[in-house]
């Protein structure tokens, strides 16, 4: 296993950091760092592929409020290529910046200055997340319809409904119930929603074509909101004993006068959801980055030719397949870990004095 780790890390470093030897059709150098980062980060349009050198994209709606009011239009109104200053100009003095501090953002150009408007545009991440939400609703409603038409005494369902029931039973019996304890039932809807939402987004994220391909759980804004929800539920579920242990713990009087323990416990209220946010974000983003980096090795060694090219291409494809299989496992593990830690945090907050 340690050798596999070493090979993966070495290949990723080769694709991400070393100078690139492959040339594109225009004779320029292929920057693999930009390729990897470009596929991971959010964008205002959904790039699918290139055909005969022309990009095939799904244009998404732009919704901004600038100094001239609200504007709603398609990203097709922006120029395909950036000008000398790095602006893809569009209507209403708006432009997408390709370099600098506001790279990848929509700005309003006023007297040579970049002013960020109020931006609620439907970006790629938002579009994919909405699709994932629709898929999740279907996943829930199909079994719900079956249960609505059957009784508890009927035989267990099979097929898709039976598969979903198996997962729900596993999560509730092995994660939610042990983590929270008595009274876990009222928290099951939230925790099961977290589990299936993260799992759906993870699985759709490794799909290389629409409607998948979006790095939803690799976006820190999404993981921040999920962690914030767990934080709110945990604090509102806190018992008197929970708050007492934070602000007036059972420790020697000297430690109560100098509230070191209380400060540590209070900080822990925020570090727990912070760990949830970073854990999910970092693992999913790293998985996408490694898979893309392994694929980029083919183009890095394309200019070398000969046995080196074919050997590295074969190894790259082999390792990419391995990483995709590993990502399937990671998709389930990360959804399970987030749900498990959330249930443990809620269970600790509901603990009563013995």
Automatic annotation (TrEMBL):
Q: Which residues cross the membrane?
A: 126-144, 187-209, 216-237, 257-278, 290-311, 317-348
Pfam family of the protein (one): ATP-synt_A
Membrane-topology descriptor:
Multi-pass membrane protein
UniProt-recorded Gene Ontology molecular function terms: proton-transporting ATP synthase activity, rotational mechanism
Database matches in Gene3D superfamilies? ATP synthase, F0 complex, subunit A
Q: Where in the cell is it found?
A: Cell membrane; Membrane
Signal peptide, first to last residue: 1-22
Q: What UniProt keywords are attached to this protein's entry?
A: ATP synthesis, Cell membrane, CF(0), Hydrogen ion transport, Ion transport, Membrane, Signal, Transmembrane, Transmembrane helix, Transport
Q: What superkingdom does the record give?
A: Bacteria
Give the record's GO CC terms. plasma membrane; proton-transporting ATP synthase complex
Read off the CDD domains from this record.
Answer: ATP-synt_Fo_a_6
Transport found in the keyword field: yes
Predominantly, its location class is membrane
Q: Is Chaperone tagged as a keyword? A: no
Which HAMAP family does the protein's record reference? ATP_synth_a_bact
Entry's family note: Belongs to the ATPase A chain family.
Function of the protein: Key component of the proton channel; it plays a direct role in the translocation of protons across the membrane.
Query: What's this protein's name?
Result: ATP synthase subunit a
The organism named in the record is Hallella colorans
């Amino acid at each position: 296993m340690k050798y596999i780790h070493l090979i993966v890390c070495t290949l990723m470093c080769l694709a991400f950091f070393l100078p690139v030897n492959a040339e594109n059709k225009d004779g320029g150098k292929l920057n693999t760092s930009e390729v990897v980062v470009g596929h991971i980060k959010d964008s205002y349009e959904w790039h699918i592929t290139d055909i005969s050198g022309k990009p095939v994209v799904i244009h998404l709606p732009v919704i901004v409020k600038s100094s001239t009011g609200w504007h709603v239009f398609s990203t097709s109104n922006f120029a395909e290529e950036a000008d000398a200053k790095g602006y893809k100009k569009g209507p209403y003095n708006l432009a997408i910046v390709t370099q600098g501090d506001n790279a990848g953002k929509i700005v309003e150009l006023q007297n040579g200055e970049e002013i960020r408007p109020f931006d609620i545009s439907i970006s790629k991440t938002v579009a994919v997340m909405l699709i994932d939400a629709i898929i999740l609703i279907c996943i829930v409603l199909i079994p719900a319809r079956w249960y609505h038409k059957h009784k508890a005494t009927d035989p267990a369902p099979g097929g898709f409904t039976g598969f979903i029931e198996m997962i729900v039973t596993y999560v509730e019996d092995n994660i939610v119930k042990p983590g929270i304890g008595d009274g876990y039932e009222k928290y099951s809807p939230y925790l099961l929603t977290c589990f299936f939402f993260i799992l759906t987004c993870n699985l759709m994220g490794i799909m290389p074509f629409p409607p998948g391909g979006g790095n939803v759980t690799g976006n820190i804004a999404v993981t921040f909101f999920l962690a914030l929800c767990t934080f709110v539920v945990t604090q509102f579920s806190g018992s008197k004993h929970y708050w007492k242990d934070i602000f007036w713990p059972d420790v020697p009087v000297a430690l109560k006068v100098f509230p070191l323990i209380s400060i540590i416990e209070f900080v822990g209220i925020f570090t727990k959801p912070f760990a949830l946010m970073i854990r999910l974000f970092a693992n999913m983003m790293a998985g996408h980055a490694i898979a893309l980096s392994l694929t980029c090795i083919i183009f890095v060694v394309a200019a070398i030719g000969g046995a080196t090219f074919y050997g590295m291409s074969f190894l790259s494809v082999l390792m990419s397949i391995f990483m995709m299989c590993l990502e399937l496992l990671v998709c389930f593990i990360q959804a399970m870990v987030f749900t498990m830690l959330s249930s443990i945090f809620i269970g600790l907050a509901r603990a009563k004095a013995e």
